[in-house]
Amino acid sequence: MPRQVDYEDRRRRIAEAVCTLIARSGMEAVSLRDVAAQANVSMGAVQRCFRTKQDMLLFALEHISQHVSERANQRIAATSTPQAASTLLSHTLAELALLDEESRTQAHVWLAFITHAPASEKLAAVLHDTYAKLHGLIAWLIRYGQDTQEILQHLDPDREAHTLLALADGLTVHVLAGHQSPATALATLQRHIDHLLENASDRG
């Protein structure tokens, strides 16, 4: 049993090393030798964990996808008292947009994988699954807001979730490119969330 735990921990360390290299120098910088050095393991250890570079990249993407999803879900689960739907939406979308300094590395890595996904069906499948889960979470929050009469009843939760998720992704790019600051990106997100709430109590 301890050996299995060590093996999984090593796979995670290698995945984090892959992400570090991608954030620093791009996907092209991911070589077996550099990953091993970054993870502080032997090249043989990397090869025992992953048969191919594609397998290693796939696991790294799954690793970061899980982390992004968990951050969004933990934001909701950590709430000890009932929160307004607008607050939950704001916090969740801010997590998904990866706008804070702590998330900058993840944002670089996420965009690198998106760029390479068209050339890899397996990477594209992981991204599709991740976006489907995030879409479901946002749609659920919108339905929650409609149940509490905070969000306009006539809005389609799935359509609004598509819009908000695309907006969060776009803002990630704008912040990384220096076109917006994290503060202005958050303000943009909040304006769109406020639009969902306009006069909801009057129309409910």
How would you sum up this structure, described in words?
The structure is a single chain. By secondary structure, the protein is mostly helical. The chain has ten helices and no strands. It is elongated, with a radius of gyration of 19 Å. The mean pLDDT is 87.
Q: Give the uncertain stretches in residue-range form.
A: none
Per the principal axes of the C-alpha atoms, what is the gross shape? elongated
What share of residues is helical? over 70%
Number of strands: 0
For the largest beta-sheet, the strand count, sense and barrel status come to: none
| Percent in strands | under 5%
Total helices: the number is: 10
The first-to-last residue Cα distance is: 56 Å
Mean pLDDT level: 87
Spell the H/E element sequence: HHHHHHHHHH
Query: What structural class do helix, strand and pairing data support?
Result: mainly alpha
What is the element layout, followed by pairings?
Blueprint: H1 2-25, H2 32-39, H3 43-49, H4 53-77, H5 85-97, H6 104-116, H7 121-147, H8 157-176, H9 182-197, H10 200-203
Helix pairs in contact: 1-2, 1-4, 1-6, 2-3, 4-5, 4-7, 5-7, 5-8, 5-9, 7-8, 8-9
